[in-house]
Amino acid sequence: MDLWRDFSHTIGDTPLSQPLEDALTAHDLSQALTGISGILVAPFDASDAFDAPKLKPIVERTVDAGVHILVANGNTGEFYGLTVEEAEAFVRAAAEHIAGRVPLLAGIGKSIKDACRLAKTSAEAGASALMIHQPPDPFVSPRGIVEYVKRVREAGDGLPVVLYLRNDAIGTRAIAELCSLAGVVGVKWATPNPLRLSEAIAASPEATVWVGGLAEVWAPAFYAVGARGFTSGLINVWPERSVAIHKALEASDYDAARKLIVGMQAFEEIRAEEMNGTNVTGVKAALAMMGHDCGRTRPPSAWPLTDAQSSKLRAFLERENLLDTMSGAA
Hints:
The chain has 330 residues and is of the alpha/beta class. The chain has 15 helices and ten strands. It folds into two domains: 3-252, TIM Barrel (Alpha-Beta Barrel); 264-330, no CATH class. It has helices at residues 3-9, 18-33, 55-65, 84-98, 112-125, 142-155, 172-179, 194-203, 215-224, 239-250, 254-262, 265-271, 273-276, 279-289, 307-319; strands at 10-11, 14-15, 36-39, 69-72, 104-108, 129-133, 161-165, 184-189, 209-212, 230-232. It has an eight-stranded parallel beta sheet with strand order 9-8-7-6-5-4-3-10, sandwiched between helices. Strands 1-2 form a two-stranded antiparallel ribbon. Helix 4 (84-98) links the parallel strand 4 and strand 5. The longest helix has 16 residues, at 18-33. The relative contact order is 0.12.
């Protein structure tokens, strides 16, 4: 059951018109997007097969901690390392475990036919919105992305769309055009360019929600130019710290936010090594040290951590009293 959809269906006993229903759903989602978008890991078993039950303890911890939105098939979920069938299993499992308690964003990407198939599956599973990965095709064009987004949304039963931009080279004009498409409610901005973000915000529809897409470390800089909320892979390991950082930023207490970020920076430094190739490796290695082994990452991600990286990670988890905190997780 998707409570976000059910809420928007009726008020009391009075059915809503479709435009009003869509407006209420978009409003609720837009508000949630200003919170934390937690990017779930994709758990694998010892045979490197997707292991849906291992997702449940992570979902429970993040929801209990107050994370606002969860994302299946994001980059911390090794989206580009999954088959389409695994990505479908991921979004179904996430929807089942979340059970409507918070919105679920379903990551969508790959070839246009695969993306449309995954959008359809995500809508049927009960996703609240589609998060469309920026196509990494070497011959991508701005107008081609527009057509891609239109076709994906249509396949996804008209669900709201959040754009995930990792490359701002398409230009402010193209970004504004994408934000003007029907159904687009937000953008996860994942380029380290606050000035270009400010330009895009000014050029795009006022109702667009701009989310910091480079996690906690970049959140203060993005907040300063108008973004709200942020994505987070830390939530798999330490959701309480992510929530504390968000509360500080929402209160405009940048000094407190910076101190909280410094306290988890060792974790992010490990994830940023090897050309960012240990990003998910650090998360999965931490989970294993905490007692909840979610398997190895898949190539071309690095696995395992080096001895030096592993020692630094263990010291961080020990300092923050996180070691073995998930032992016995179902």
